[in-house]
Structures are given as C-alpha cells and as structure tokens.
Design goal:
Layout lengths: L5 E6 L6 H11 L4 E7 L10 H11 L6 E6 L3 H8 L3 E5 L3 H17 L4 E5 L10 H7 L12 H9 L3
Parallel strand pairs: 1-2, 1-4, 2-3, 4-5
Helix pairs in contact: 2-6
Length: 161
C-alpha cells in the first residue's frame, strides 16, 4: 500500500491563473505529491500550445517542491494508473461548475472504482478568475496582471498574445 498521498490536478490551464495557483497551494497542504496534468484538449482549441501551457505551469509552480507537471492526452483514469495516484483535484467556482464536475467525477469513478474526486473552492478573492476570462481580455490588451502569476504574464507577452 502506497503511504505517499498523491493527487492529480488535471485541466487545460489555458493559461494557468491565480485561481488555479490558489488551489495548488492549498492542495500542497493536503498531499505529499501533486501532479498538475495539462490536457492537450485539441477539441477546446486552446489559445496556447500544449508546450507553452506546460512551461507556464512549470514556471508558476517552481516554488512548490511537491508539484510536478506533465502533459497528457487520453483518459484521466489511464494517467492515474501510470502515476499511481487515485485522487483527482478539481476546482469549483460556481454552481455551474459543479454540475459538469460532478458528471466527470462519476464518469471517472465508473471507469475506475478507486478514483476519488475532491472539490476545492478557490479563495473568495479568486472566485471570478478563470482562464476564459483571461483569454477574453488578452486580445484587447486589457489588464490581466491581477489574474496571472508575474512569470506567466511575461511568458504570454513573449508569446505575442
């Protein structure tokens, strides 16, 4: 039996926001190892490439020794087997998030009974922050520095977005 508490925090992270990082910080107090799994998600037509998203997540979590970052494509339950981690972390901002996340949690549990999904709410100050909000502001040159880690903002500027 594995005594190390491992969790997976999956998502598109297009881009990773201060809300995501709030969840990561709090998850670090609960788990020994957190793998942030950056999904390829071609069907979502991400603004940033998988490689760029992985680099942004790595840069913004470099001060968290419990965190490692991987890119993945396919079923989350297959990744959980590969990583020997049966706890999935998901963030919830609003009731609208809950319905989708509940369905995904049940779907994952139907594929692998050992999977447990835990839901974490971001701190109140980050409740409105989402990658889609950032993506909707970026093309217009609006202010996003309060929504992103400074390292991520620099990378986005370097990517020409």
């Amino acid at each position: 039996m594995n005594s190390i508490k491992k969790a997976i925090y999956p998502g598109t992270f297009d881009p990773i926001t201060v809300g995501h990082l709030d969840i990561v910080k709090r998850a670090c107090s609960m788990f020994d190892e957190i793998t942030i799994a950056v999904a390829k998600s071609a069907s979502k037509a991400p603004m940033f490439t998988l490689e760029q998203r992985i680099a942004m997540v790595e840069a913004s979590t470099s001060d968290y020794p419990k965190v490692k970052v991987v890119g993945f494509e396919g079923l989350l339950v297959d990744l959980s087997d590969k990583l020997d981690a049966n706890i999935i972390i998901r963030g919830l901002r609003a009731v609208s998030d809950f319905e989708y996340e509940l369905q995904m949690g049940y779907a994952n549990a139907s594929l692998k009974k050992e999977i447990e999904t835990i839901f974490l709410m971001p701190s109140l100050e980050y409740g409105f922050v989402s990658s889609s909000v950032v993506r909707s502001i970026l093309p217009f040159g609006g202010r996003v520095e309060h929504l992103l880690d400074a390292k991520v903002l620099k990378m986005i500027e370097a990517y020409g977005k």
